Each structure stands twice: as C-alpha cells, then as structure tokens.
Amino acid sequence: MYHSSDPRAALAAAPVGTKPAATHFAGAEYAKFYETPPAENQNGARTWYARGQNFIIAYSDADKGALLSRTNQPDEYVVLLPDPGAGAEIVWGNERKVVGGHSISFVPAGASAVTLLGAAKVVRMVTTRSEDLAMLCSNAASYATPHPNLPPFEPWPEATGGPKIRTYSLDVAATPGRFGRIFRCSTFMVNFLEPKNGPRDPSKMSPHHHDDFEQCSLALAGTFIHHLRWPWTTDMAQWRDDDHESCGSPSIAVIPPPSIHTSQAVDPKLNVLVDIFCPPRMDFSAKPGWVLNEDDYPMPVQSPAGKSAA
Length: 310
Prior knowledge:
seven-stranded antiparallel β-sheet; mainly beta; 310 residues
C-alpha cells in the first residue's frame, strides 16, 4: 500500500500464483554500528560487518590512505562512497581507476584494492560467498540456519562488455515518477534515496511486503523507525509481535519476507537511507528509466511463467 505520491504506486501488481502462503517467519535483523566497537581496526579503517541471507554490509570509517583489499573475491561487489569530497583509487587486475566521492562503483571478482584519497566513510557490499567476511558479521549466528521464504541466490547476467571497474556519480537530479537513484550490477541493486530534511509525514507512509526477498535499509544519517508486522497463521506459535525499532546512523535493518514494513524518518535534521537488494529486483528493473545504469547490465531472460531462466 503506497501513498498516491509514491512512485512505487505505479508498480504492476505481482501476479497471483499457486505458491502456498508462508507459514514460518524470520525476525528482522538490526545492526547499530554506532553502539558497538568495529570488528576490524586495521590499515587505517575501522570496519563493522552485518549480513542478510545473501549479502554482507561492510561499513568503514576510513582515514586518508586507508587500504581495503580483497585477495580472492568470488564475485562482483559494490564500493559506495556516499559523501561528497574524498574519493578513492580502485585497483583491479591491470586496471587502476580514481573515483570521486558521492559515487558508487562495481568491482569484478578477483584481487582488488580500494585506497582512500582522504578521510571518508565507505560501504562495501559483498555476497555471502565471501565466507571470510561472513564470519565477521555481528549477526552471523542468526544465519547458522537459512531463513525461510527465500530462494537460493542466483546472480544476474554479467555486464555487457566484460568485467571492469564501473563507476557512477550519485549526483543525479530527481525526476518525477522515478523512485530514488537506482543502480545495479550482477549481484546487487542499490537505491540511494533522496535525502530528506526533517521527519517523514506520518500521513504518507508506505506499508508493503515482499514475497521472497530481503530488503536491507542502510541508515547513513539521521534516525529511522522501522515498522514491521508479520502475518497471522492458524498456528499461534508462529505469531510475532510488531516491531517499531528505532535505528540511528550508521545502521542496517534487514527486513524479511513477507513482513509488512515501512520506515519512518524522525530526525529533525538530515535523514539519509539506502535500500539494498541481493540479487537485483525484477519489478524495479522493469520500470523504464528507474535503473540508471540499465544499459550496462542486462536483465535475466524471463520464462513465460515470469521466472528468470537458467
């Protein structure tokens, strides 16, 4: 249920299928990085880790010259420099690229390194195929058993033109009818939402649910209350209390399917939220013009039933 002013109100309704309704549910995951010491403090960067079923968020508070490297990265990953100002040098194979602040980059599998050209916060997003980083997550124990209602992870097609570092500026003006600033690669979809000054209008919330994927909401500035409600089933043992979890910055909330959810910015100053999906969302990708780098990364071939073909 979206307010009429929300661009997502124009999304096509999901077709009614024959899949049985969910009967078992996972709780949400919250990682409030500001409340805990970093999991790592090395090479000039203090880094916190938390995860969902398919993804890991690595949030770093980095000094000038800080080095963030991957020696045997199994798949494509994301480097987000959310703030204007200091950029970074990214090296992958024989390619060396200097990227500015307020940018998002996609780095191919293999050995790579990110060196900060000034003090900055950096967010890397990798899949849980990076087992060395999965072990460092503050909520690793929660995923010792896979959560219900999520299919196995399948990456999307690789970029047209083969592997290389691809970088995009976040300085993209808002367009009526477009939702946020969405970029995707073969493993992630990242929506850098428009910053908001002051609290969200409580009469314009957007409670909705997802059938079979998690949403990660990364708070980079301000405070958000994440409101969640789970379905009732015939088995009262599966009922869950509503969540109204207040999260400051930096933090993540991992929202499980099929919980009804909406996030409410409440800080009187700046509120910045980034929504993350792993793998990318098909419904957002199907909206013309919503994915700003859609020409670089093809969508999966769809079968007649609407599922991506192998």
